[in-house]
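so the lab meeting is tmrw and i was supposed to have these ready like two days ago... anyway. pasting both below. for each one the top line is the aa sequence and the line under it is the structure tokens. i havent really looked at them closely yet so no promises
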Amino acid sequence: RVNQSFFRSTILSSYNLKCCITGLSITDFLVASHIIPWKKDESNRLNPHNGLCLNSIHDKAFDKGFITVTSDYKIKVSKYFDDFSKEGAVLDLFLRYNNQPILLPDKFPPSKEFLAYHQEVIFKK
């Protein structure tokens, strides 16, 4: 993807190289995640307001709609996980973050409009 490395470096640096959900700072596990997917909105592919710094497991969960970030910057976990709530990994990786605020970037805050799109169109309620 053209300019993907620019998008990644912009997002990761604005989040001070930390996952906005967990605070993980091991850069090999960090992803510049698109709020509105790359294939859905060509005009905002490189817009830093369309990005979140996530670790790879939360990036996958976000892309698939198992988690979202609300327009007041809180993590919302899908009811999909209710069936797995007794699993320690599900509790540790997902349920404990429900309704918790994300770490906000120093610049390029996530667009509330893009977050609303993710919550309405992609999130599995």
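ok protien two:
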Amino acid sequence: MPPETPHRIHCRLDELLEDRGLSLTELADKVGITVVNLSVLKNDRAKAIRFSTLTSLCEALDCEPGDLFTITE
């Protein structure tokens, strides 16, 4: 099996949390996701995200999916 190519998607969760004055724990409580799973997403280690999770995050952070993710070079 060939080695997995790293993805180029970067999650901007740290920046959005700081802009909104929220902690990761507060966001986890609002969205109903564990802090561990949010940390995986925040640290660009997630391999996938459910649309329902993405929707909940965007609602809690009052943002669009494009505000939450960028593509790196």
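from a quick look at the 2nd one: The chain is about 55% helix and 10% strand. The first helix runs from residue 13 to 20. will dig more after coffe
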